[in-house]
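Hey, quick one: can you model this chain's 3D structure?
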Amino acid sequence: MSTIPSRSAMVSVSRQMRAYFAPVDRCTETPAVFDPGLYGKFPLSMAPSPWVDLGWIENFQRTYETPTQPVRAGAKGLPCTQFRGPLEGRVEFDFQQWGKLQMALAGGSEHMNVLAPVPGSTTPVASGGTPAPAAAVLAGSTASQLVLGTGVVGGFPVGTLLAVDVDYQQQVGYVGTGISAAYVSSAIAVKQDPNYVRRVTFNVGRVAQVTAASVLLAQPLLGGVPPAGASAQAVVAFVDREGGSFFQEWSALFVAEEESGGRVCFYYPRLSPNPGVSSGKFMREQVTEIAKPCSTIGLHASFLALPYVDENDGQTVLCYRSYFPAPLAAIY
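Sure thing. Here's the predicted structure for all 332 residues.
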């Protein structure tokens, strides 16, 4: 009697999908690289730098819209080979958590920090008016600890949100330490506002502890160590806007954690937020009822995949799908 060999653990079973993002260097168009051979099986709660964990996502859907056409030859026009048309791929999903980066990715253009207003201010501005003066960040500061000096730290109690970056000095081009947060076409466009970089920077943190001369942050600044000349300002809220001329660009990694079987990863070297276009829904938030009258509000995000040239063979690609088989699983 013949026996049929076992084909064990070949079904990928996952409860949820998790999203990780890392900034693309906009000046050189260099993405963050996910090498599955180096850290493909990293613990999902401790992603390696520069990847930022943005939590579990729902309704993950990716589409590949690149047409494939045949080349026909002969009297009967028979297909003899084929070629690919213009590359196009998209990704959509719903963030289940709200935060600065999640809002920025779901919004798509400049994302702003609402700086704490100057005391007595009465002139309203939709993205934040005249802010309270900034506090200089002193030498010895790190991405997790800001040295502000005695007498100054009292203005930033535990729980305060901070934007940390340099003054705007009428430069044009990309601005924002570590992560390009906006593109300035002219100093007049931003009213030569010395606080503009801190209005848009991704270098934000929350005060977790206050010492005699410094504040310790709950999470390290995404942009890293504050540059020389940086200052800190309190932030009261985050705001994004529908519209704007700036297009963000990020590297993205989506991981289906293995419940049983192997792990599946989708790596996009370059994604640009492109809200609503892929589905035609133009949906910005996803409301899910828990039990009346309570509902959760998810941030709907949609992206266009941009091309990337693989270093191993020079092929232009949009996405990498990797699979890590479970131990002792059949290969095919």
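One thing worth noting: The longest helix spans residues 100-107.
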